[in-house]
């Protein structure tokens, strides 16, 4: 568990060492497995695994290296897979008791693309039931704890992936995002989560085909590694209605995400907002964000305190989210209500409370919202915000019912800092940026133009380098040695309960 442990290597560094025969894929796999076995009892992030298969794949990667065979961009790299998509031979439960015994017979297209690039699935990472809510807990696998303080939430819904990355289980992990489901846990755990523009990462499981609210995306420990993973995920696939494919190619060059250009931050028109003018944001978050800006100001051009017009954001998101949950989960709620948790019940009930007129108004309001965001980004190149509106709280709290004394409107209202950009379909990335007054990781969100994904990654990489050189803001990993000696999380009261 030293600084030179292969488990702590980033994806690009590990891949480079493998190509130079300075690191064996077998040794990397064994280091990652050893890390899981040392600390997962304390955090419960990797909930399904088949290490025999991991070792077999690592040996096959080793043979390719030693034989001089062509190596894929991700050759020999383990990666975590959120328990919302399939890995052949492993359970896919969606965190739902109704699918407790469901075992996948084939890989999801994202997993297949990663395997084709040479990566090795390490196992399934935990998420809330049907990814509903931003506290990673369910009645199949229990709760996943924040590795920086195991009494706190790791957020969600891609919480298991974020914890796995922070703890050194793998250099890469899959995530998905509607209301910040990969950005929020990245912020809480001190890693990187990127929500791409609609269709950049195609999927064959988009159930509400013409509502691009949810998307998969890469999670990693640094921006360049996320870009490398995105270069594999951003492939042509006409099964996703938001992925334009012409003559077998997408409008974006996938390879470009793996080689980010340098950007002169001083030449950019950068805006900053602590709340978009509508989001509930805790004082501790506001204070830390305000402390960040002067420290990065010498490295960037003038910072304009401004926000896109977010009129009707809460209403748009609530209605469209309700419609999606009603379409996907109503039958489950009706036929097996005892197997459905409170968040899914609440969202289905909310969806049933909306009329056709409510849906129509939300869709038209979303169009106006989109136009307002395009106008804003004609005047600004990027926008900086806090990633999440609160500091990590006790994981026993299913969701924040109040923020600084003001009640929240729903179990997802506290995610407004993330869903503001979701509604407009703009790419957004969370990068670690110091620790708040509670001593817990803080995520800085960088938002850019719709389909300006490579630019957002490039700007985030520049900011990441600046932050690394500022002692108060440089990222810090969790205490692995302390986690190794921590008590088993499953023995904690409330581990499997929503109470």
Structure commentary:
The chain is an alpha+beta fold. It is globular and about 60 Å long. The chain has 14 helices and 19 strands. The chain has helices spanning 11-19, 25-43, 51-67, 109-116, 159-167, 183-189, 223-233, 283-296, 313-335, 342-352, 356-379, 416-424, 453-468, 480-484, and strands at 46-49, 78-82, 120-125, 137-138, 142-143, 145-146, 149-153, 172-177, 192-195, 215-220, 245-246, 249-250, 270-272, 303-305, 382-386, 402-403, 406-407, 428-435, 441-447. It starts with 10 loop residues before the first helix and ends in a 15-residue tail after the last helix. The protein is 36% helix and 15% strand. The relative contact order is 0.14. Helix 9 packs across helix 10 (342-352) and helix 9 (313-335) packs across helix 11. The model has no long low-confidence stretch (mean pLDDT 96). The strands form 5 sheets. Strands 1-3-2-8-10-9-18-19-15-13-14 form an 11-stranded mixed sheet, with helices on both faces.
Multimerization status: single chain
Helix and strand composition category = alpha+beta
Low-confidence stretches: none
Give a quick account of the main beta sheet: strands, pairing sense, barrel closure: 11 strands, mixed
Judging from the principal axes of the Cα atoms, what is the shape? Answer: globular
Determine the number of helices (DSSP H or I, runs of at least 4 residues): 14
- Rg measurement, Å: 21 Å
Number of strands: 19
What is the terminal-to-terminal distance? 36 Å
Q: What share of the residues does DSSP label as strand, in percent?
A: 15-25%
Strand order of the largest sheet: 1-3-2-8-10-9-18-19-15-13-14
Query: Averaging pLDDT over every residue, what do you get?
Result: 96
Query: What portion of residues is helical?
Result: 25-40%
């Amino acid at each position: 568990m030293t600084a030179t442990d292969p488990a702590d290597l980033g994806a690009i560094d590990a891949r480079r060492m493998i190509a130079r025969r300075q690191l064996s894929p077998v040794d990397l796999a064994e280091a990652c497995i050893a890390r899981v076995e040392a600390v997962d009892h304390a955090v419960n992030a990797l909930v399904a695994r088949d290490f025999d298969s991991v070792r077999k794949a690592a040996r096959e990667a080793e043979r390719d290296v030693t034989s001089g065979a062509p190596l894929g961009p991700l050759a020999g790299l383990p990666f975590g897979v959120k328990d919302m998509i399939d890995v052949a031979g492993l359970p896919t439960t969606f965190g739902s008791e109704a699918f407790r015994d469901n075992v996948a017979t084939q890989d999801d297209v994202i997993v297949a693309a990663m395997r084709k690039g040479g990566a090795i699935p390490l196992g399934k990472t935990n998420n809330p039931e049907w990814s509903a809510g931003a506290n990673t807990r369910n009645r199949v696998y229990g709760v996943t704890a924040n590795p920086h303080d195991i009494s706190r939430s790791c957020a969600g819904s891609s919480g298991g992936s974020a914890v796995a990355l922070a703890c050194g289980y793998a250099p890469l992990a899959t995530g998905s995002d509607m209301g910040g489901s990969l950005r929020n846990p990245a912020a809480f755990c001190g890693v990187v989560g990127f929500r791409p523009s609609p269709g950049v990462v195609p999927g064959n499981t988009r159930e509400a085909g013409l509502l691009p609210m949810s998307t998969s995306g890469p999670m990693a420990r640094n921006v360049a590694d996320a870009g490398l993973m995105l270069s594999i995920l951003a492939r042509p696939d006409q099964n996703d209605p938001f992925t334009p494919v012409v003559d077998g190619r997408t409008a974006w060059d996938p390879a470009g995400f793996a080689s980010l250009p340098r950007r002169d931050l001083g030449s950019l028109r950068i805006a900053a907002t602590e709340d978009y003018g509508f989001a509930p944001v805790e004082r501790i978050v506001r204070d830390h964000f305000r402390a960040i800006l002067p420290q990065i100001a010498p490295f960037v051009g003038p910072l304009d305190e401004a926000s896109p017009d977010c009129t009707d954001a809460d209403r748009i998101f609530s209605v469209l989210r309700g419609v999606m949950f009603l379409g996907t989960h109503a039958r489950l709620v009706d036929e097996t209500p005892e197997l459905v948790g409170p968040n899914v019940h609440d969202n289905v009930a909310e969806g049933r409370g909306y009329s056709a007129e409510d849906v129509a108004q939300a869709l038209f309001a979303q169009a106006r919202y989109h136009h307002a965001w395009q106008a804003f980004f004609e005047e600004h190149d990027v926008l900086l915000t806090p990633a999440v509106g609160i500091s990590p709280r006790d994981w026993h709290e299913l969701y924040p019912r109040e923020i600084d004394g003001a009640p929240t409107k729903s179990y997802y209202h506290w995610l407004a800092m993330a869903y503001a950009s979701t509604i407009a379909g703009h790419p957004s990335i969370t990068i670690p940026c110091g620790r708040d007054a509670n001593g817990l990781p803080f995520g800085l969100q960088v938002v850019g133009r719709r389909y300006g994904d490579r630019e957002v990654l490039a700007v985030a990489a520049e900011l990441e380098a600046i932050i690394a050189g500022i002692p108060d803001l440089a990222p810090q990993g969790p205490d692995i040695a302390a986690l190794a000696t921590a008590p088993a999380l499953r023995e904690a009261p409330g581990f499997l309960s929503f109470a």
